[in-house]
Description:
The structure holds 2 protein chains of 2 kinds.
Chain A: H1 19-44, H2 59-66, E1 74-76, H3 82-87, H4 92-99, H5 133-149, E2 160-165, H6 172-183, E3 188-194, E4 197-198, E5 201-202, H7 203-206, H8 215-218, E6 223-227, H9 231-246, E7 252-257, H10 275-282, H11 286-296, H12 302-325
Parallel strand pairs in A: 1-2, 2-3, 3-7, 6-7
Antiparallel strand pairs in A: 4-5
Chain B: E1 2-5, H1 6-20, E2 24-28, H2 44-48, E3 53-55, H3 60-72, E4 76-80, H4 91-99, H5 101-104, E5 114-119, H6 133-137, E6 144-147, H7 151-163, E7 168-173, E8 180-183, E9 196-199, E10 205-208, H8 212-225, E11 231-234, E12 237-239, H9 243-253, E13 256-263, H10 268-280, E14 289-293, H11 302-308, H12 312-324
Helix pairs in contact in B: 1-7, 3-4, 8-12
The site of thiamine diphosphate has 15 residues of chain A, from β2 and β4.
Cofactor (chain B): thiamine diphosphate
Keywords (chain B): Oxidoreductase, Thiamine pyrophosphate
Domain Transketolase-like pyrimidine-binding (chain B): 4-179
Amino acid sequence: MVQERILPQFSSTQVKLSRKEGLTLYEDMVLGRYFEDKCAEMYYRGKMFGFVHLYNGQEAVSSGVIKAMRADDYVCSTYRDHVHALSAGVPAREVMAELFGKATGCSKGRGGSMHLFSAEHNLLGGFAFVAEGIPVATGAAFQSKYRREVLGDASADQVTACFFGDGASNNGQFFECLNMATLWKLPILFVVENNKWAIGMAHDRATSDIEIYRKGPAFGMPGVEVDGMDVLAVWATAQDAIARARAGEGPTLIEALTYRFRGHSLADPDELRSKDEKDHWFAQDPIKRFQTYLIEQNLANQDELKAIDQKIQMRVEEAVKFAEESPDPDPSELYRYVFVDESKS
Amino acid sequence: MAEVLLFNALRDAIDEEMAHDATVLVMGEDVGQYGGSYKVTKGLYEKYGNLRVLDTPIAENSFTGMAVGAAMTGLKPIIEGMNMGFLLLAFNQIANNAGMLPYTSGGNFTMPMVIRGPGGVGRQLGAEHSQRLEAYFQAVPGLKIVACSTPYNAKGLLKSAIRDPNPVLFFEHVLLYNLKEHIPDEDYCLPLNRAEVVHPGKDVTLLTYSRMRHHVLQALKTLTQEGFNPEVIDLISLKPLDFETIGASIRKTHRVIIVEECMRTGGIGAELIASINERFFDELDAPVVRLSSQDIPTPYNGMLESLTIVQPQQIVTAVKEMMALQV
Lengths: 345, 327
Ligand SMILES: Cc1ncc(C[n+]2csc(CCOP(=O)(O)OP(=O)(O)O)c2C)c(N)n1
Ligand SMILES: [Mg+2]
């Protein structure tokens, strides 16, 4: 087993977390977990198709960052996007319906697992090509600055969170966008979810300096390393970065050290990762860790958490039912959305 | 009616659209302080400032991706490819993101952006700077592709492209920037989806676009002197093709010659022939002929370069040969 990186120390006494905030984070992580488990089940039952990349194990990153944001902030994801969409507020039923290819899906059945979008929830995608979301997110952040400075809209202080993996951080678009984001002081968080693997390519076999956060300062922005299995640590780190971005102080690079509990996609036999490595990370399950924290801090008791689990399970079941009962897209609308329908504008 | 150079007509189009819509901005390499490599954005930086005329680093895929993100969130970016060929680096952003994302998002996002700049075979610029990307991009769903050819249409088309809610690839030609023409002083737009009947005739339909329009017009002089009367159509819109105008002409002439600067294989002409055969086969009195560039990287040597692209004399010959066919 490869030597694990020492996770940065984070003392939970650094944060002030209300019961409401704690339960929000918990509920969001549980939703992510149950939703993904249900996807695996539905995939094996032949209800969804294509490449389906699950997020199990990484929940603390999505919940910690996105729940620290405002509803009108922007989120940009990759092909591993279900849980980012859920954290951003896209209803579970719309995500599930999209995975089923239904007309009621958030992308109207045109997108699928790797192309989730929601204009209503400022979810910019769903990008199936590694790293291509990074420039798009950078453009959304530029837009906020433009709106504020050129259009004189003082309320345009939206921040963009751009999620991508360790593998993506070796792509040129990452470096190009770090450069431009600092150059123009854009309100953006580059959140690398370093889960140690890019399909079968181990991070240390692909990357000259494995500490990705250190690339931030090279481009003139803070780089922060955070324990991506600790939702509180992620949440606190994101809050700082968001505050800086909103105040016009520019971008932050956040490297969250995390791990995916399943194969790369549901088609991946997952043969390269060692049992030792997996066990090491399973022991840090972010949901269990946070449960313990909430109970220790008297923010919730076991029964309350159970009740949340049950509520979320029902929501996921309901999402499946909704997806199943939803109609396919209308075949006469095969060409709809290729171009803007100008007859309607 | 003032006489303007084509690059100034383009600049006026951008200037007017920026003046009346504050969400319109220009992004690209050297578009700002330098005024654009062909001076299309000269003076706009001074007038609109550094955010509306954004000088970007040399990072084509990333600044094109940024324009996508800006367009999705409500701005109307105009990307300038310093040379359209450089945008090969942004093929992914143009195809996957600008072209396809509105569809894959199920209409969640629209993509009001223009990607414009100089293309085509210039004077001994070498292979990489002599590209005709329109052929490469024509298969991408969701893109509109337009080629301007005169100061008048350059201005009217660019204004329409900027106002269009869809992504428009807008091709200019390096050798046409200094064309001069009297154009209206008042605000005008031209439709993006209409071909232009440049010269009405009845013998044969000559379909062309961009710089080849001018080669065709040169050939037309000779042909007219010799008693031929071809109809010349500038396609303007390379995608979608205007089959209404093309069809009306074919019903009149029953003969078609395509004159294009893109390469023969997989070119605009290839698509035209296939579509014409599908739609108008019964109208044709002769097989459609295409005159295209040779299927080679454009050579540097001037003589080889001129052998690579279609010359007016070849057009004259092709028309005569077609007219000599007994039907
Ligand atoms: C441009 C591009 N190249 C290759 C792929 C195939 N691919 C999909 S995911 C992936 C690994 C990405 O790893 P990482 O960025 O670490 O993200 P993770 O999957 O671990 O979340 C690869 C190579 C792709 N989707 N896009
Ligand atoms: Mg990874």
